[in-house]
Amino acid sequence: MIAPMIAAIGSVLAVLVTALTTVWLFYRGKAIEHRRINKAVLAEIHRLIHDVIPYHAKWWDDCTAPSVGDEDLPLIPFTTPVYDEHAKNIGMPDEGVVADVATFYGYIKFLNSLQKSRDEYCKLEKVNKFIITYKRSLKTANDTFKGRFVKAFDDFGIGKNNPTAQINK
After folding, report:
1. What secondary structure does DSSP assign to 10-34, as a single string?
2. By Cβ atoms counted within 10 A, which residue in 3, 132, 139, 156 is the most buried?
């Protein structure tokens, strides 16, 4: 009589352990997924802050130099494929970083909108106003966001041994 009770208790314990393990694995998988998404978004931010925006600003300065006069060259919008795909899944542990991520991408969208408005400046014969505004906006992006994600980049190991970051120095 005691053997069937022990077997029943063993079966219940096995079911409980299986259920708890399943729940733990599910939440652990979600945490790993969020961490990977966060790292990918931060890597994209790092690429934009440390590589794309500085190179683009230098290129724009070169194009708009009085001796060059290439301010009519097409402006290529800043791309944010990782953020666009995963914005709904961002789950940063630090709420301050989430706000910075949203602010950063909002500013990137502003820069892209400003690029699209260049034709309107031209129609109004305000090309120089556009050039100045765009240069200032690129500088603002660089000045505002360059140091804002340092801790997050360090926490995720982003930017270490980045050969293009060395070129920018």
Report:
1. HHHHHHHHHHHHHHHHHHHHHHHHH
2. 156
Domain parsing of the chain, residue ranges:
38-168
Residues 6+ apart with CB under 8 A from 44: 80, 81, 82, 83
Task: Using alpha carbons, select from 112, 136, 115, 124 the residue that is nearest to residue 71.
Answer: 115
Tens digit of pLDDT for each residue in 10-40? 888 888 878 778 877 777 777 677 778 888 8
Measured CA to CA, the distance from residue 47 to residue 86 in angstroms comes to 17
Mean pLDDT, residues 61-81: 88
As a residue count, the chain comes to: 169
What span, in angstroms and rounded, lies between the C-alpha atoms of 96 and 102?
10
pLDDT at residue 128 is higher than 50: yes
